[in-house]
TrEMBL record:
One of its GO terms (molecular function) is ATP binding. Keywords: ATP-binding, Nucleotide-binding, Phosphoprotein. The keyword Phosphoprotein applies. Transmembrane segments: none annotated. The modification 4-aspartylphosphate is found at residue 54. CDD domains: AAA. InterPro entries: AAA+_ATPase, AAA_lid_NorR, CheY-like_superfamily, P-loop_NTPase, Sig_transdc_resp-reg_receiver, Sigma_54_int, Sigma_54_int_dom_ATP-bd_2. The keyword Nucleotide-binding applies. This is Sigma-54-dependent Fis family transcriptional regulator. Residues 141-370 form the Sigma-54 factor interaction domain. Residues 3-119 form the Response regulatory domain. One of its GO terms (biological process) is regulation of DNA-templated transcription. It comes from the Bacteria.
Length: 387
């Protein structure tokens, strides 16, 4: 049942609003507040789906109520009630986050239409918030070790900036998770995160993949095609395994970073792009630079912020948490009853040499869930998790 709060110091106007809302839909639960202070107390103590708030009130005016309410419950749509002389203020409240404003005396159709739109919008906001939480949970970093907590702190500090980030670490450690977290916590999260695995694309095609091409640029270019940088415009591009990129492509990436411009293969026309670049590699790029396989100037453009993701062997204290996480996830995926791991089984897994890191651990946990007993024992681990 939608809950609506009416904050209005004029008793006559307040009664009219409550009467209209109550009679229009008997599923609306309508409550009243006689001034801004009472209104804020009610907002703090209740979950409202919509608030109507007068602008001119004693003790606390409508603008102050709006600003305070948005800090307490930012998702609540707030409709301002304005007298004729308050219209300029009402318009300004829209910039402060008001959903809409209604003039006194309230027009019936305008009022009811605003209520319907505001309530529908609230549902969408909540659903979107839940969806974002669900998406972000898919890329959750599991662990409480000092190394993982350091990475989480770095992400919190860096995400809201446009600083370029270079993520290093062995294969299977979760470098892509760091990239996803950086994007999701940034102001660019509404834009796309475009991933490019530089190691999986042949060197002769990497430039076309990144920057696009025009028809006739090479034999198989039968039509114009936009590249990944254009697809990521307004968002983030994640260049995974950048240490495997050809020197020719590196030169073009460097220009894109320096000038925020790209050129499609076969064309000399500049295309302006607004892209945040996050890169990752399992290689030692300083060694690659010394051996002439990676550009030093590109390295310094990319490595504004360095985040190193440790191997699983360096954070063994996180293994119990990771096992619990993968057990929940895999049981849900398979639609099976969740199995448990004995303490000795977990200790046995903590002693393994995890050359494949998190990716290998997940595979082993899945194998044990499928083949092991209801409680996975040390013997199960010895039998099914052996290298």
């Amino acid at each position: 049942m939608p809950k609506i709060l009416v904050i209005e110091d004029e008793a006559a106007i307040r009664r009219v609003l409550v009467k209209i809302l109550s009679e229009e839909n008997d599923t609306y639960q309508v409550e009243e507040a006689v001034d801004g202070l009472e209104g804020i107390e009610k907002i703090r103590d209740n979950d409202y789906d919509l608030v109507f708030c007068d602008i001119k009130m004693p003790k606390m005016d409508g603008v102050e109520v709006l600003e305070a309410a948005k800090k307490i419950k930012p998702e609540i749509p707030i409709v301002m009630i304005s007298g004729h002389g308050d219209l300029d203020t009402a318009v300004n409240t829209m910039r402060l986050g008001a959903f809409d404003y209604i003039s006194k005396p309230p027009d019936l159709n305008r009022l009811l239409n605003t209520v319907r739109i505001a309530l529908d919008n609230k549902v969408l906001v909540v659903e979107n918030k839940m969806l974002k939480k669900k998406v972000s949970k898919n890329y959750e970093m599991i662990g409480e070790s000092a190394a993982i907590n350091h990475i989480k702190d770095m992400i919190e500090k860096v995400a809201q900036t446009d600083a370029r980030v270079l993520i290093t670490g062995p294969n299977g450690t979760g470098k892509e998770l760091v990239a996803h977290w950086l994007h999701q916590k940034s102001d660019r999260s509404k834009g796309s995160l475009v991933e490019v695995n530089c190691a999986a694309i042949p060197s002769e095609l990497i430039e076309s993949e990144l920057f696009g091409h025009v028809k006739g640029a090479f034999t198989s270019a039968v039509k114009d095609r936009a590249g990944k940088f254009e697809a990521a415009n307004g968002g983030t591009i994640f260049l995974d395994e950048i240490g495997d990129m050809s020197l020719s492509a590196q030169a073009k990436v460097l220009r894109a970073l320096q000038e925020n411009k790209i050129q499609r293969v076969g064309n000399d026309k500049d295309i302006k792009v607004d892209v945040r670049v996050i890169a990752a590699t399992n290689k030692n790029l300083k060694t690659e630079i010394a051996e002439g396989r990676f550009r030093e100037d590109l390295y310094h453009r990319l490595a504004v912020i360095l985040i190193h993701v440790p191997s699983l062997n360096e954070r063994r204290e996180d293994i119990p948490l990771l096992i619990e996480y993968f057990t929940d996830k895999i049981s849900n995926e398979h639609g099976t009853v969740k199995k448990s791991f004995s303490d000795k089984a977990i200790m046995q897994l903590q002693e393994y040499d995890w050359t494949g890191n998190i990716r290998e651990l997940r595979n082993v946990v899945e194998r044990l869930i499928i083949l092991g007993e209801k409680e996975i024992s040390e013997d199960d681990v010895k039998m099914f998790a052996s290298k």
